[in-house]
Amino acid sequence: MTSLASNATPEQEKPYSKKQWQRGYDSQRREESYELELISGAVPKALQGTLFRNGPGLLDINGIPVQHPFDGDGMICKFSFQEGKVHFQNRFVRTQGFIEEQEAGTILYRNVFGTQKPGGWLQNAFDFKQKNIANTNVIYWGNKLLALWEGGLPHRLDPKTLETLGIDKLHGILGEKDAFAAHPWIEPQSALNNNQPCLINFYIEPGLSTTIHTYDFDANFNLLRKQSHNVPGFAFIHDFAITPNYYIFFQNPVKFNPIPFALGLRGAGECIKFHPEENSQVWVIPRNTNSGESVKKLEVNAGFIFHHGNAFEINNQQLCVDSICYADFPEVDPDSDFRDVDFEALHPGQLWRFTLNLETQVVDKELVEPRCCEFPAVHPNKVGQPYRYLFMATAHQSIGNAPLQGILKYDWQTQEHLVWSNAPHGFVSEPTFVPKPDSQTEDEGWVLTLVYNGKKHCSEFVILEGKTLEEIARLGLKYHIPYGLHGSWISQVIS
């Protein structure tokens, strides 16, 4: 079943140009609204709805570069699909910090991953105010379009114009100093919500110990449940997993030294030290507060985890969690340029399966896909459930670390995979799987991804057939979109 699409180059040592890849991190200041040009194929008329995507669009302030791409100001992209045509629109999230820095023409805030105010340590010492950059994800739920950044409150946007409406505290559920993580899950049929859809999210409150807050919302953003649990030590948790009965958190084995940050010598992200010899703490939290179950702590050497693909319950004592794991954490060097990354020197993200036994508190782990991969996505109706297919962004070559240039489809039943590659000039974003109307099988749908064409210095939108990963349509944008992070699909057409 392993396949490589016809537009891929033969496997070689470096099937990409580093100079082309680097230009994908150029800032994009244009904000426009227009219909995409069809380059090849045809957009299926049955593909109707809207894809929202978020990511750092501004990677410098008046020529002063950010230290890390995760510090770039958030820019929302909207792709509206209707009757075989695709309308595109992009716009920056006008956060308070964005507006202030654009008016000042310089960096005014310290950011999490190393960006500092000009002027050296004296200008940064004991300044703990962070800019909410709203750059990580965007969701449409309860008639609200929200730009998310895990370090702060969500920003509400107008879904038609993408105009920033302001901070949204979700009917007063969130406090002024609270946050709302960038990786919510939508459970399609929640047993804890009369088999109705449920949005589940969390946020991490740091301190001498860490507090994990979890939230369950109904389809109208009414709060169903909120829980808070303390766990020992510092927690760097970007994502989590859910099943019908549990929230699952992998607490990465990292330590945080606040002194260089407090003295203005380093950004917060540059003060994190990964300890690969130590185990991750796995926290399994019962979702039903009336179940009588207690929180369980398990341990496993899992490396470093940014993203989980899915999780499900085997029985009432065993859970499976599928995750992208790194043997090492790419620590941020304050003297480095993120565009000069040495891919070959870094460990790739790889797909692992963890089987948690709640009775024995033993975790088994298995390397499933050694190929470099990231940004896992599943059929929306399979969230938290046993499933067969996982879609991921992947490297062109089968071994080693490299930029993400293709899409990989993994079949848990046959343990085989398909690969579509856009090497040597294409660099992909997170895939989104959209089921076909009245589909009968799990992979009957389309895989959507935004591709940066390094040869043209422009972005293209690609639609793949879910079963075969055959490219069925490619559309062109007028300019490039910097490498993004996460997004979401809705079946409503918003244009």
TrEMBL record:
Domain of life: Bacteria
MF annotations from Gene Ontology: carotenoid dioxygenase activity; metal ion binding
Record bears the keyword Oxidoreductase: yes
InterPro entries from the UniProt entry: Carotenoid_Oase, Haem_d1_sf
UniProt biased composition (Polar residues): 1-10
Cofactor(s) needed: Fe(2+)
PANTHER family given in the database record: BETA-CAROTENE DIOXYGENASE, CAROTENOID 9,10(9',10')-CLEAVAGE DIOXYGENASE 1
Family listed: Belongs to the carotenoid oxygenase family.
Official protein name in the record: Apocarotenoid-15,15'-oxygenase
Organism name: Euhalothece natronophila Z-M001
